[in-house]
C-alpha cells in the first residue's frame, strides 16, 4: 500500500512538472537580424532598422548632401531623439544606428556626444606628464559640429474588439548649428495590425 502511494505521488509530481512546472529556453539558433518577426505588439528591432535605414538614405540622397561639397565633410552631431510614446524604447540604440549608417555613407564626419567625457579624461591624462609633451593632445582643437540631428518618435494605438492598430511616426531634423535653420527633415511611418488570439501551451 505504501509503495503504491509513493508511486502515485511520484507520478503526480512528474505530471505537475511536465504540465505546469517552470519552463526555460534551452535551445536556440542564430537568426538573420533583418528577418521580420512580430512576437508582440511592441516596438521591435525591425521598426528600429526601418527608421534608421530610411533616415540615413534620405539624408545622404538629399540635394544638399548628395554631392560631396569639397574636401571638408559636413560634421554632424546626433543629438537627442525623444520618445513620445507610452513604451520604453531605447532611443540611444536608434541614434547609434543612424550615426553608424551616416558614417558608412562616407559623406559625413560624425561627432560622438557620449565620448566627450572620455575625451576630457584623456586630455587630463595626456597633460599629466605621463605622455611626451610634444605628442600630447589637449582641449581646444576638437572639431565643431556643423549640424545637429534631432528627432521625435510618436505613436497612436487604436483597439476595437479583437483588432489592434499601432501607428508610429518618427520625425528627424537636421539643424544648422550656426544659423538654426532646418536644412533637412523627413519622417518614417510604420503601421501594424494585430489580432487577439488565445494563447495555447
Describe the SSE topology.
Blueprint: H1 2-20, H2 45-61, E1 75-83, H3 91-105, E2 109-111, H4 116-126, E3 147-160, E4 163-176, E5 182-195
Parallel strand pairs: 1-2, 1-3
Antiparallel strand pairs: 3-4, 4-5
Helix pairs in contact: 2-3
Explain this structure.
By secondary structure, the protein is α/β, with parallel strands linked by helices. Helix content is 31%, strand content 27%. It contains four helices and five strands; from the N terminus they run H-H-E-H-E-H-E-E-E. The chain has a five-stranded mixed sheet with strand order 2-1-3-4-5, with helices on one face. The radius of gyration is 26 Å and the shape is extended. The two termini are 36 Å apart.
What is the string of SSEs from the N terminus onward? Answer: HHEHEHEEE
| Share of β-strand residues | 25-35%
Protein structure class: alpha/beta
Mean pLDDT: 84
Show unreliable segments. Answer: none
Brief synopsis:
The chain is of the alpha/beta class. Helices cover 31% and strands 27% of the residues. 15% of the residues are buried.
Amino acid at each position: 500500500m505504501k509503495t503504491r502511494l509513493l508511486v502515485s505521488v511520484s507520478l503526480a509530481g512528474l505530471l505537475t512538472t511536465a504540465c505546469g512546472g517552470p519552463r526555460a529556453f534551452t535551445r536556440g539558433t542564430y537568426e538573420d537580424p533583418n528577418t521580420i518577426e512580430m512576437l508582440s505588439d511592441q516596438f521591435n528591432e525591425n521598426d528600429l532598422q526601418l527608421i534608421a535605414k530610411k533616415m540615413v538614405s534620405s539624408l545622404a540622397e538629399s540635394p544638399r548632401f548628395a554631392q560631396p561639397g569639397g574636401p571638408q565633410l559636413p560634421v554632424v552631431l546626433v543629438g537627442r531623439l525623444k520618445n513620445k510614446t507610452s513604451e520604453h524604447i531605447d532611443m540611444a540604440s536608434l541614434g547609434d544606428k543612424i550615426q553608424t549608417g551616416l558614417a558608412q555613407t562616407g559623406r559625413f564626419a560624425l561627432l560622438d556626444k557620449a565620448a566627450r567625457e572620455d575625451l576630457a579624461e584623456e586630455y587630463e591624462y595626456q597633460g599629466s606628464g605621463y605622455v611626451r609633451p610634444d605628442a600630447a593632445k589637449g582641449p581646444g582643437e576638437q572639431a565643431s559640429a556643423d549640424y545637429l540631428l534631432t528627432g521625435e518618435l510618436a505613436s497612436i494605438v487604436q483597439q476595437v474588439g479583437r483588432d489592434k492598430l499601432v501607428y508610429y511616426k518618427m520625425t528627424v531634423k537636421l539643424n544648422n548649428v550656426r544659423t538654426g535653420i532646418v536644412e533637412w527633415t523627413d519622417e518614417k511611418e510604420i503601421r501594424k495590425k494585430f489580432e487577439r488570439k488565445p494563447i495555447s501551451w
